[in-house]
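Long-time lurker. I teach an intro course on protein structure, and each term I like to show students one example going from raw sequence to a predicted 3D structure in token notation. This year I'd like something fresh instead of my usual example. Would anyone be willing to generate the tokens for the chain below so I can use it in lecture? Attribution to the forum is fine with me.
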Amino acid sequence: MILPVWYDTYGNAACAEFLKIGIYANRNCAPGISDTEFGNALCLVLDKNNVRGREIRLTSKAIGERCRKESGREIAAGVIMKIVRGEIVV
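-- Reply from a regular --
Happy to contribute to a lecture. Here you go:
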């Protein structure tokens, strides 16, 4: 769950949601947050029966596993770029 509050974090939240590795949890009230919007995002991510939430969990878990195999932010960035380019399907 991403709760952006300034400049670049809005783009990061949108990217994470596009890549299906996170959810932009305060899209309608950023930089603030409403209890309803936050609660809905939390329920979506944690609900085992929600297809979108399950996809976010599985995709982010797969990326996490790849990043732990080899350390370094350069490797993580490389994996993310391969996903963006369609070279890796998660």
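Some talking points for your students: The first helix runs from residue 7 to 18. The chain has one domain: 7-85.
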